[in-house]
Amino acid sequence: MDLTIRDARGDDGAAIASLLGQLGYETEAAAVAPRLERLVIVGDRVVVAVLDNEVVGLAQLHASPTIEHERPAAKISALVVDESHRGEGIGRALVEAMEAEARTRRCVLLFLTTAARREDAQAFYRRVGLEETGSRFTKTLD
């Protein structure tokens, strides 16, 4: 398997929109490039996994200072592998890339959130060394 992890680009828009759609986040391809620009401005890192010249995965890392730690905390804000390529090690490679980036930024911890209904994702997160430490509460704002 010749897998490459690289920074996402505006011309990845269609592939990224498709991946986000697989998670239930319907996104227009044209909306991706401006979002990537905004994320770069705030210091996020967005990468794609490329296999045989096809974007097959996506991950986003957001690091921020916290009041409870001296060093920042890193959140994997997005993580998805194309349905047709799950179970091939791509998700693990993306998590490892985000962990390496978090370590480069001297983050004290790496975390993510996931919906309670995504039991397969939760099992994957445990397999790659993340532990369940709490619950997430949300409120959609208009």
Summary?
The chain is α+β, with helices and mostly antiparallel strands and 142 residues long. It has four helices and five strands, in the order E-H-H-E-E-E-H-E-H.
The radius of gyration over CA amounts to 15 Å
What order do the helices and strands follow? Answer: EHHEEEHEH
Quote the beta fraction.
15-25%
Uncertain residue ranges: none
Order of strands across the widest beta sheet? 1-2-3-4-5
Query: Globular, elongated, flat, extended or rod-shaped: what is the shape?
Result: globular
Q: N-to-C terminal Cα separation, in Å? A: 44 Å
Tell me, what is the CATH class?
Answer: Alpha Beta
How many helices in DSSP terms?
4
CATH level-four homologous superfamily name:
Gcn5-related N-acetyltransferase (GNAT)
CATH level-3 fold name: Aminopeptidase
Counting structural domains, the number is 1
Assign the CATH architecture: 3-Layer(aba) Sandwich
Structural class: alpha+beta
Portion in helices: 25-40%
Rounded mean pLDDT is 95
- According to DSSP, the number of beta strands is 5
